[in-house]
Amino acid sequence: MGKLFDFFSPTKNRKDEGIKKKDRIVDEKFSTKSFFKLLKNRIMSLLTLNVILTLFLIPIITFFMGVSGSFSYYDRTPESNVFLVMNGISHYEEGAYMNVLLNVFGDTGLISRNSVATVWLERSIVLEFLLFGMANVGFAYVLRETVRCNPVFIFSDFFRTIKKNIKQALLFGILDFGAILILIYDIYAYNMNSSEWMYLMFFYLSILMIVIYFIMRTYIYQMMITFDLPVKKLVKNAFLFTFIGLKRNLAGLLGVALVVILNYLLMNVTFTFSVSLILPFVLTISVCGLISVYCAYPQIKKHMIDPYYESIGKTEDDEDEDDEEPVFVDQG
Three-state DSSP class for 252? Predict the structure, then answer.
């Protein structure tokens, strides 16, 4: 167990020397190499964080359980509406031709009827509008501190951040979740009608919009827990950061895509199928989040945090070393 703990430990301490204050895993350039070091050393924290986040996503899970039909009633009924007409006529007309028609149009199929459980499971999605923003601010704070190589008490810090940012979390969470649902619906609807060139154009435009918004979301929640800014300003800055840090943003997007694709490919292998179903609830989401924050935080640090400290003649590290109350107020 000791060797296993040392493997996942954030330092290479082997002689009980403790953690040095300047002993950081992530280098100043936030390189790819240091990311994998960070991922290895914080994997257990990511597991815990993913499980906590999953609890906030239960309404989404129950919604899909409802629409899957697992709790619905099923009845057998004729597939063709003509059968009802033929069946009515057969009460007054007899003959071989009528039996043939009844056989032709008499094929039956299953139809589902919503049960009470199905209705409530589907309606549970409404709760996610309230939980979504809260889950994301807690998630963003833990990941930011992970990238900054600061010690994190995951459970307490997660809920403390929610408490401090509850108003903006609720407001933007409703807008955020609504925007995601609309964009997903647009992609689905335009894809169903993609045979027409105009709908096909809107389909690709919707994909572009969801990609841009996916990048923006990371910046919005990071700034929300770090700065005291109104929602309008958060959205504006996030849009600018999407293009200012385009290189890192695309790298992060590629990294997230690779993790999701890997998880999907595991579903096609028999002996890893069960593991691939569990992974999103215990690891996949937090790894994707870490990739996004790792790519976004350097841009926020460079363009917003560092200029502030330069204006007062300090650095971000000085705040940790100073015993006095810091001037820079962290909203997390």
Answer: helix
Task: Please state, in angstroms and as integers, the Cα–Cα distance from residue 4 to each residue in 45, 144, 151, 244, 329, following that order.
Answer: 14, 25, 20, 41, 38
Apex 289 CA angle, 166 and 121, nearest 5:
65
18 compared with 223, residue with greater pLDDT: 223
What are the Cα distances from residue 39, in Å, to 4, 156, 189, 203?
15, 21, 38, 35
- Read off the pLDDT of residues 266-310 as tens digits, 9 standing for 90 and up: 888 777 788 888 999 999 999 999 999 999 999 999 999 888 777
* Angle between helical axes of 285-300 and 231-244 (0-180°, round to 10): 90
State how far Cα 150 lies from the chain centre.
23
> At a CB cut-off of 8 Å and minimum separation 6, what does 91 contact?
none
What the block records as the tokens of 12 is 């290479």
Say if CB 203 and CB 187 are below 8 A apart. yes
Q: Where are the beta strands (DSSP E) in 169-270?
A: none
Cα 166–Cα 168–Cα 172 angle in degrees, nearest 5: 120
